[in-house]
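retry 2 of 3: previous attempt timed out while embedding adenosine-5'-diphosphate. Reduced batch size to 1 and resubmitted. Inputs unchanged:
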Amino acid sequence: RKQVFRLSTGSCNLDRLLGGGIESMSITEAFGEFRTGKTQLSHTLCVTAQMPGANGYLGGKVMFIDTEHTFRPDRLRAIADRFNLDQTAVLENILYARAYNSEHQFELLESVAVKFHEEAGIFKLLIVDSIMALFRVDYCGRGELADRQQKLGQMMSKLQKISEEFNVAVFVTNQITSSFSGILSEDQLSKPVGGNVLAHASTTRLALRKAGVGNKRIAKIYDSPDLEESEATFVITTGGVDD
Ligand code: ADP
Ligand code: MG
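retry 2 succeeded.
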């Protein structure tokens, strides 16, 4: 029997907002503008997923799909230090893949499914940072929006299937940009890029924004069927996401 588990974000506030952390057998999407902490949250989860947690969770390996070339082993070393974990062991438990275009990103998910099948029960977290970046490049014209949404929908279905079949938490990031005017309607501009396709596939959507100048950030649950639309503050430190 598959036992659902939750992974800590590194921030108690944020974990509380999420009902205990990001959940397995579902997709959590963090969206926000540049520098709101999406990649730092991804890195922190890479480490916390390896640590024992609530309800008998023992920790496991992580698959990281990087589309923007922002994966930083040095950041992981610093986060490992914060939790008194061996840096090398932490890095060895993270399988890294760089996606070069949207088609490649999809193919990588096929390989991930094979890998998760071969090493059954070993992987606990799949990260895609960021989910939309390559789609924006590959489908940039107005006439291609429908195609892009269809491909994106297929990818989200694949991610959902992987999360359920292998009982892993899927964490995806999505950058909001204002450079999209002309492609999306004004109404859509205020919402995360990806529109309804992402909204339906993601179980939990987390809107991130900066709070003032420093390292403080605010997270808000967005449009969740079963969580309150409340907010939590967290900070980004050398040791990753924290309170
Ligand atoms: P996003 O992926 O949403 O564009 P990031 O996750 O890359 O944003 O967050 C970038 C922010 O993280 C920086 O503005 C900085 O405040 C913080 N940050 C990055 N590295 C460190 C570090 N080593 N120590 C403290 N804060 C850091
Ligand atoms: Mg980023």
